[in-house]
Amino acid sequence: MVSRYVTLLDSHPTHLDRLMVQTPALSLSTYTEEARAEIDAALERYTAFETECPDVLREAIRHSLLAPCKRLRPLLVLMAAEACGCDRGAAIPAACAVEMIHTYSLIHDDLPAMDDDDLRRGRPTCHAKYGEATAILAGDALLTEAFRVLANDIAPAHVAARCCVELAEAAGASGMVGGQAADLAAEFQGGDVQDLEAIHRRKTGAMFRVSLRLGALVAKAADEQLVALDTYGRKLGLAFQITDDLLDVRGDEHAMGKRIGKDADHGKLTFPSLLGIEESQQRAASLIEEACSALTVFESSASQLEALACHIVERNR
Amino acid sequence: MVSRYVTLLDSHPTHLDRLMVQTPALSLSTYTEEARAEIDAALERYTAFETECPDVLREAIRHSLLAPCKRLRPLLVLMAAEACGCDRGAAIPAACAVEMIHTYSLIHDDLPAMDDDDLRRGRPTCHAKYGEATAILAGDALLTEAFRVLANDIAPAHVAARCCVELAEAAGASGMVGGQAADLAAEFQGGDVQDLEAIHRRKTGAMFRVSLRLGALVAKAADEQLVALDTYGRKLGLAFQITDDLLDVRGDEHAMGKRIGKDADHGKLTFPSLLGIEESQQRAASLIEEACSALTVFESSASQLEALACHIVERNR
Predict the structure, then answer these.
(1) Does any domain span residue A15?
(2) How confident is residue B77, by pLDDT bands cut at 50, 70 and 90?
(3) Chain A CB within 8 Å of residue B128 CB
């Protein structure tokens, strides 16, 4: 990765004191542990559904949503809000909304009619445990609740409305859902690296980008900060997907908490199948370097985003 | 039905001129024909998805959404807005959002894992024509688009945010989705009239009520108007469901545009099976009378809502 701290030091030796401040106050693992606890507590509260929700539906929703996992997208929301100078507490509802959308998409994508998976986040998939009908409804309920949370708990109202619009655009027919439809179609039709990047721009990239944008919107970010986060998110999303494809070839099923080797079995387009393993790894590393370069506008406030980007290509799950 | 025009005339003979104004300027059929054309045109625009949406997904969405049908819920939005003194044009986005939610719920409820239907709105169901995976995604995309439309096209922003919250509450785990989950559970467990009413309060009633509320919110309705519309919506929703159950026993499949007789085949709880046909009919008629009584607060401006209520129990589809 580009070390912009060293670059700053070289060109501005008088900035040494400032550099000390720029060193992340918390390690990535400590930060993510604390932030995940806040996210999990909020998700727990949001899905208590104390009135009128049938027990089996509540259980199915919580089975999938509250399973231990990385919480990558909500972490991006919180880190972006902090990078833009906002307390992360104000962005917790947006973080939860993004995680609800992500989890609903996993529940529906795992259905027999789609990717037909039986293991996710180290647990049986929602339909494997509760049946297909309940899994479809659990996904629908999470998708709906995401917008309730944003519209109700983000302030002021014009920011809440803007967050709803951006999340819907990222998650809908021109975003994530469109990407999944294109991905299913590509299984039968094949394609090249451009096709694969176009699929992942929608399927993974759109949700990465909107996670960062929601955090920035809550923090009333300046335009140049939004542009920087867009670039970071686009590159990070693609690097994440390449790593995901690599882990599907070489990963550890237990660590991943989901079945591996399924992409090849289904004849799916993947980066390793199109570029080979080594070039895929190089591509992911370059993207992370470019993603971090985009963060220079934030100086020290984006240190967690930078650390997270490096972690993403080094992860084993 | 209660004829409040006659009542007004009896007690205030000098109100004769006013009574003439209170007579609906348009017949229900002319009104609904014009309003439906506006709704259909807006739904057509909203689902053009000119960029980034795979063709098959766009076609599946439009196949289900643009099929000729009653547009009952969006008509309720527009009529409520007009009853509260607002031009119906301002409520068109809310009307479209409600119809998108309703259509997504039909697509998902028709899936093999749920009610397993092959005919809807006189066309093959979405999964029968495009496959299960695409039907699941088409439903997801419509659900998502409903919130985009509300958040983007309703003004001011605090009304847009409030509309998103109320629609999510009505459609989600404690509303429509919860009702469908309870309905599926009841197939196996049986129940009485109270259970059945509780299911339909969520499954049908919540969407009827929120349709009226969104129209009223857009029109900045007074509290007493909202209360009146709540009562009207609750009674109308139940009357509609009783009539729907009756049509499933005695209706015309061609006119209905969907399979009939399926409730009995699936051992579903229905009003005719619990109360008998005659008592079900009487119950529906009483509910409509009560629904119309709640509208007196509006004087003449709710004449279309009153006419629609009467039509609902007399319909054949």
Answers:
(1) no
(2) very high
(3) no
Condensed to tens digits (0 to 9), the pLDDT of residues A23-37 reads: 556 899 999 999 999
Burial environment of residue B153 by CB neighbours within 10 A (0 to 12, 13 to 18, 19 or more): middle
Q: Determine contact, residues B105/B172, Cβ cutoff 8 Å.
A: no
Sign of CA dihedral A284, A289, A294, A298: positive
Residue B273's CATH number: 1.10.600.10
Q: What domain range includes position A272?
A: 27-314
- Average pLDDT estimate for B205-227: 97
Q: Three-class SS string for A243-294?
A: HHHHHHHHCCHHHHCCCCCHHHHCCCCCHHHHHCHHHHHHHHHHHHHHHHHH
Distance between CA atoms of residues B88 and B9, nearest Å? 29
- A165 contacts on B by Cβ (under 8 Å): 148, 151-152
Min Cα–Cα distance to chain B from A3, Å: 36
Q: How many CA atoms lie within 13 A of A276 on its CB side?
A: 3
Q: With contacts defined as CB-CB under 8 Å, which chain B residues touch A140? A: 104, 108, 139-140, 143, 177
Q: Cα(A288)–Cα(A239) distance, rounded to whole angstroms?
A: 7
Residue A120 sits at φ, ψ, to 5 deg, of -155, 135
A52, A181, A185: residue with CB nearest B178: A52
Across chain A, where does the E strand assignment appear? 119-120, 123-124
Q: How far is CA B28 from the centre of its chain?
A: 16
Q: Of B138, B240, B119, B214, whose CA–CA distance to A136 is shortest?
A: B138
Calculate mean pLDDT across residues A123-140: 97
- Tell me whether residue B281 is in a domain: yes
CA distance B1 to chain A (A): 32
Residue B20 lies in a domain: no
pTM listed for this prediction: 0.90
- Please state the three-class secondary structure of A211-243 as a single string: HHHHHHHHCCCCHHHHHHHHHHHHHHHHHHHHH
A94 at B interface, C-beta within 8 A: no
Q: Which of B40, B29, B112 is nearest to B71 (CA)?
A: B40
Residue A161 Cα, gap to closest chain B Cα (Å):
5
| Inter-chain CB proximity B162 and A182 less than 8 Å | no
| A5 within a domain of the structure (yes/no) | no
| ipTM of this complex | 0.90
Nearest CB among B143, B156, B175 relative to A143 is that of: B143
Question: Domain tally for chain A?
Answer: 1
